[in-house]
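Tip: read the tokens left to right.
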């Protein structure tokens, strides 16, 4: 089962009602899953079997992101 993907704007709109399910049988709200924040994504894993269920892209404007990253290089 491939993880569902969405951007941060869609996630914010659906956060209160977004439900996830896993092949192991677990079902629940996204905020009940294990969330892990990375630099550009937030992923949610099943609390029962650790399968990645949802990947949220946090980058709204890719050009601004890459310009910001380039400006941080020593």
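Filled-in amino acids:
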């Amino acid at each position: 089962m491939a993880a569902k993907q969405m951007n941060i704007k869609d996630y914010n709109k659906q956060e209160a009602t977004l439900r996830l399910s896993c092949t192991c049988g677990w079902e629940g709200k996204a905020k009940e899953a294990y969330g892990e924040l990375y630099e550009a994504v937030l992923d949610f894993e099943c609390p029962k079997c650790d399968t990645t269920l949802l990947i949220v892209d946090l980058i709204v404007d890719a050009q601004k992101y890459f310009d910001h990253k380039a400006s941080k290089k020593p």
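The chain has a mean pLDDT of 87. The chain has one domain: 4-71.
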